[in-house]
Write a structure and sequence with these properties.
Endonuclease I-creI; about 15% strand; 4-stranded antiparallel sheet; single chain; alpha+beta
């Protein structure tokens, strides 16, 4: 059984959203070439203590070491949370996102579960809808679309 994502305070959700906006990714990734894309939220940093705080605060996810390819690169770590746990995290942090990542988060929250059967078996219609969803998701890039202009007042409920 998966660990449940903790209920975050408004302050924690806003802080983590800021880290995701600045250092994180909201993506659909494949583990293997033939696999369907899975939903992933990740954050990379050279400060393991920061990512450990985030993992403890969220209560789920994992931290891995990133490989350094050059001697002048600083070793770094990555926090990763996938699929339903990542959705549970996004439900809490999306109101505080301020970059193009809010558009990706809104799209995923709206459509991902509907288009991702638990058993991995797709009807032809589901497969077409999922392919369209993935294309739409991947078109959302930095500064490519206008962002919602709804400022969140300091730590008020979204």
């Amino acid at each position: 059984m998966y660990r449940q994502v903790h209920k975050l305070s408004h302050e924690e959700a806003a802080y983590i959203a800021g880290i995701i906006d600045g250092e994180g990714t909201i993506s659909l990734s494949r583990r293997h070439r033939a696999d369907n894309r899975q939903f992933v939220v990740s954050i990379s940093s050279i400060e393991p203590q920061l990512l450990e705080y985030i993992r403890r605060t969220i209560g789920a996810g994992r931290i891995t070491n990133k490989r350094t390819y050059r001697t002048n690169h600083t070793p770094s770590v990555t926090y990763v949370i996938n699929n339903r746990q990542a959705l549970a995290l996004l439900e809490q942090v999306t109101p505080y996102l301020r970059t193009y990542k809010v558009l990706r988060a809104q799209l995923v929250l709206r459509d991902y579960l509907r288009l991702t059967p638990r058993n991995g078996k797709y009807t032809i219609i589901q497969l077409r809808e999922r392919e369209a969803f993935v294309e739409q998701f991947l078109r959302i890039r930095q500064a490519s679309q206008p962002l919602p202009q709804e400022p969140v007042s300091q730590f008020n409920s979204p």
